[in-house]
Specification:
The chain has eleven helices and nine strands. By secondary structure, it is α/β, with parallel strands linked by helices. The structure holds phosphoric acid mono(formamide)ester.
Length: about 290
């Protein structure tokens, strides 16, 4: 039976720990060709820099190769069904990463595919990014369990929603600092504490996370979002309220002066570029896990 990675809950806590252990090994020794001759399809309905480059590099460094297909260049753009595309692609490649708008599209595609499907970002979550984020926390601060992570800004975003899902799996405390209307559905909170006061949320924080205020597909709301979230910029004064050794994460791309100040993203608390690099190592471990069923 194939395994998909559509949400963080698709792997157990033990599997996540094994994945991190393997990602540390792969980071220490980048020349391991465990996926020689394997192929990975990268299917994009939205723009990407990191996801495209890091997945292409991941499979390439492991000895396999990537086929990148922007949706508008495929027959899907001319009406071929997702399901037929998934069935056909499964006969060519060993795994598929899909970046799409709707979670229903992701699920329908995965149900029709006969090889593992990885969520490369959907409206409901960005699980490969949050894996890289938590791997970065472990690398910088030690065990993730017991840490206090604060997500500031647009907490209705796919990133915040994946952090909510991750908290009980990895055993960290999650606080969300966001105004009304920019929070996850209550059913997805899974114990996360919500406040409109970022200064209060920051007390004792080990990790501060933020993301863009206007995600892909929300461009028409940009003005309203800038206004609603203007008190939630992660700046030097806000980070000073966290623990002295706290790290700051942002999945990128960033808008300096909006959700994060230049002084923070380019400053001593920032682990943003290690976080971006760690997409590579964690995804290599994930591809091995799904394709070789390690
Ligand atoms: N963080 C992230 O997924 O980046 P891209 O949108 O550039 O892939």
């Amino acid at each position: 039976m194939k395994r998909d990675f559509l949400t963080l809950s698709d792997l157990s806590s033990d599997e996540h720990l094994l994945l991190f252990r393997r990602a540390h090994e792969l980071k220490a020794n980048r020349r391991q060709r465990t996926l020689e001759g394997r192929s990975l399809l990268l299917l994009f309905e939205k723009a990407s820099t990191r996801t495209r480059i890091s997945f292409e590099a991941s499979i390439g460094q492991l000895g396999g190769h990537a086929i990148t297909l922007p949706m508008q260049e495929s027959q899907i753009a001319r009406g071929e069904t997702l399901e037929d595309t998934a069935r056909v692609a499964s006969r060519y490649v060993d795994a598929i990463m899909f970046r799409t708008h709707g979670d229903e599209r992701l699920k329908a595609f995965a149900a029709a595919a006969t090889v593992p499907v990885i969520n490369g970002l959907s409206d409901g979550g960005h699980p490969v990014q949050v894996l890289a984020d938590l791997f970065t926390v472990e690398e910088k601060l030690g065990e993730v369990a017991g840490k206090t992570i604060v997500f500031v800004g647009d907490c209705g975003s796919n990133m915040a929603r994946s952090f909510c899902e991750a908290a009980p799996i990895f055993g960290f405390s999650l606080r969300l600092a966001a105004p009304e209307g920019y929070r996850p559905p209550a059913a997805e909170l899974r114990g996360a504490r919500v406040t409109a006061n970022p200064a209060e949320a920051m007390q004792g924080a080990d990790v501060v996370v933020t993301d863009v205020w206007t995600s892909m597909g929300q461009e028409a709301e940009t003005k309203a979002r800038l206004q609603a979230l203007s008190a939630y910029t992660v700046d030097e004064a806000m980070v000073a309220k966290a623990r002295p050794q706290a790290i700051v994460l942002h999945c990128l791309p960033a808008h300096r002066g909006e959700e994060i100040s230049a002084g923070v993203i380019d400053g001593p608390h920032s682990a943003v570029f290690e976080e971006a690099e760690n997409r590579l190592h964690v995804q290599k471990a994930l591809l091995e896990h799904l394709i070789l069923r390690r």
